[in-house]
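hi! just following up on the protien thing from before. the input was this:
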Amino acid sequence: MKKFRLFLAGILVLGLGLLTLGGCRTATTAHLEVVTSTSLLAQIVERVGGNLVSVVNIIPPAQCPGHFDVKPGDIQKLADAGLFLLHGWQGEQFSAELVASANNPDLTVVPVNIPGNWMVPSVQIQAVDTILAALSDVDSENAATYQEAAAAYKASVTAKEAEIEARLAGLNLPSINVMCSNQLTDFVQWLGLNVVADFGRPEDLTPQVVQGLVDTGRTGKVTLIIDNLQSGEDAGKGLAEELGCQRVVFTNFPGGFDNTETWEKALDYDVGLVLGAIAQ
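and the predicted 3d structure came back as:
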């Protein structure tokens, strides 16, 4: 009888050990696997999802989505994912082929096509709401946690907006005439600068177009050119040289430059460039 009791005790200990190991496996594999097309999406998913999600981004933050080439590893990322968030931009035409190649029947694909520049606070908040809905739909069990995190992040966005507005107050930015990348127009106008004209990517700038922009810049007394890293950081270089004015390069995506991996840090980086240009 004593040996039998010892045998039962051993079985019980072994069973508890297996349950514990099983619990550990569940905990480590419980993350929602999310793939994003850009860092604009990725950093919001990370903020809203926290430790409930595992985020893999496809397009490097310094690269233009329209010039991205799919790699075999990107297909595997989607094959293992439960949710794919993309913008639905024309430059993301690769996405349909990518999803088909992944052959993942459990993958939910959600376009997050929010109009406007995502560096603008109001647009950022709209994006948060849309991403929150996508996460909650796919993982309804944790919807309340996602909602709480989204509310906290939106409060952070609102606070950063007030901080930036305070930093720029009294600088008379509407009196500063600029030309900027057409990918930045909404954002530059939100900052308060006077956009005289905008320009496209380097491949769009024919000699005739450049001459027209130079003439417009001279007439409009442009003193600052603002390029966009992701759409060709040197697009406006020739314009600045012709006009004899300053030039800065914004990042339109978090992570485009060092120490810009969040929306707040990217915003601070771009604003810092404006303040530095004004101070010169």
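The beta strands are 32-36, 53-57, 83-86, 108-111, 177-181, 194-199, 224-228, 246-250.
The chain has two domains: 31-165, 170-279.
cheers
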